[in-house]
TrEMBL record:
This is Nitric oxide reductase NorE protein. The chain crosses the membrane at residues 24-46, 66-85, 97-118, 130-158, 165-187. One of its GO terms (biological process) is aerobic electron transport chain. Residues 26-189 form the Heme-copper oxidase subunit III family profile domain. Belongs to the cytochrome c oxidase subunit 3 family. It comes from the Bacteria. It holds the Pfam family COX3. Its main location: membrane. The keyword Glycosyltransferase does not apply. GO terms for molecular function: cytochrome-c oxidase activity.
Amino acid sequence: MQNEISGGAPLQIAHETAIDDDALLLWILVWSELIAFGILLTAFLIMSGIHADDFAVARIHLNPGLAAANTLVLLTSGWQAAIAARRRASPSTARIPFCLAAAFGLLFVVIKCIEYAAEFRYSFDATFSYFFQLYFLITGFHLLHVVFGSFVLLLVAWRPARGNILLIATLWHAIDLVWLVIFPIIYLV
């Protein structure tokens, strides 16, 4: 009884089980997101094969320079998240890198909105409808993840706990990974 009250082994086991449950839920979320984006990107590749000429012309209306800048912004954000999640770092030292990671995430959103403003008018052209429907669906879905992840980064920066730091850093890297696949498939292929 004394061991349970004073924070001995039974409470430690309960704490470790809670962290394991959080990690399991995180990995279910990450894999489900990777599968969802995989399906969307597969649909994009299939449609780009079926409508190759229309997709090639539609790509001319994209801005790969802004997308490349956004790639650098998101990678810098991921680097800051990695700094926050260093193994020996204390939770309080995660605050500044997570705030920077969130700021770069929100900069990604601003750049993407600037890009969307220039591209939106082409989405009404019937020739490009398949391309831009999939383009806005895929990149918009990713953009929502960046917005949500940026706010979670700020929330964890405000109240850092070691388990939460590792969870959001992992989720943020999954968001980075998805963009690193989206970028070449949509803009460069």
